[in-house]
Amino acid sequence: MTQQLSIRWSKPKTILVATNLLEGHRLILHAVYQAELSDARVLLVHVVPPFYWKTQSHDGRPSTHPTPFARGVTLKLEEMANELRRDGVNCVSILLKGLPQQQIAELVKSWDVDRVIVGARNINGVARFAEGSVVEDLMASVEVPVCVIGRRARPGAACGTQPGRVLLVASFPLDSAFLVDIAGALAESNYSQLTLMHVRWTEVMTGGQRGLAETRVERRLCALVSNPSALKLRHIFLVGEGDPAKSILREAGTMSQDLIIFGYPSPSLVSCFLDAGVIHRVIAESECPVMTFKPALQATTEYWAA
Questions:
Q1: Burial of 65: CB neighbours in 10 Å, binned 0-12, 13-18, 19+
Q2: Roughly what angle, to the nearest 10 degrees, separates helices 68-86 and 25-38?
Q3: Is 15 helix (H, G, I), strand (E, B) or coil?
Q4: Is 271 inside any structural domain?
Q5: Do 171 and 265 sit in the same domain of this protein?
Q6: Rounded to 5 degrees, what angle do the CA atoms 182, 184, 185 make?
Q7: Which of 92, 140, 155, 279 is deepest in the core (most CB within 10 A)?
């Protein structure tokens, strides 16, 4: 099962692109790029709230009709779909009625979607409660990887070349070897260099304690790789220090990473608030896409005691 999922999620055949119609050409660029890497079909989806549809009675039976606003949305969605088609992508435009989180989650299941792409113009501050809530709910709920295109994601990350570097952020003990297998499969399929990174808070440690802790973390990272001898490119193992978001962004910038991968924390854990906050800060400032996997997608293999 793990191998099947590794293949499915590293080479998706159906990608759902959730759009609010306001992201502009940037989201289309990334959708085209990811679709072309695996020759995937794209479902371009927009969800309209129920109050933009009107119910009328015809022969005693209620029927639902779109308002002029909903018809305008349909035209805009089809215009975006045509842009994808002009770039050679097999694209289906889908307009749904209801709550975005609920409708998209149901569509993921009914269309056998392998990956969700969603744009985030601004995921910090007050805007997070409006726009960010949809992104957060998708990352925490859908049963497939969610790739978030942040407001700073560079167009260069969607310009036709395969991703050269992939950064996986490991957070013990939440992540599993399964997540490493998925990230490794994605990197291997695109001949990308995979870096496994863990960030430690070290303010209260002495120099000797830091060295021992770093060695221990490196061993744990190395142990996550199931078959190092079979790798096309050797993985890089990196231990960061200090503020996690700053350390991750610094690494992503200095090594020109093309994709950052996180395991999204379980809502039942106290650390969820810290870990989710790190993810949102990285999304807001990252110059490359950020892909998350919900806890249910990760293996239940237990780690060593922290």
A1: exposed
A2: 50
A3: strand
A4: yes
A5: yes
A6: 65
A7: 279
Residue 129 or residue 199, greater confidence: 199
This prediction's pTM? 0.82
Domain assignment present for residue 11? The answer is yes
Q: Are residues 17 and 137 in the same domain?
A: yes
Residue 146 carries which side chain, given as an amino acid letter?
V
Query: Residue 37's closest CA among 166, 152, 137?
Result: 166
Radius of gyration of the chain (CA): 20
Residues 66 and 205 in one domain: no
CA 261, CA 169: separation in Å to the nearest integer? 6
- Please say if the pLDDT value at position 302 is more than 50: no
Q: Report the b/e string of 84-112 with b at 16+ CB within 10 A.
A: bbeeebebebbbbeeebbebbbebbeeee
Q: What is the pLDDT of residues 109-123, one digit of tens each?
A: 999 999 999 998 654
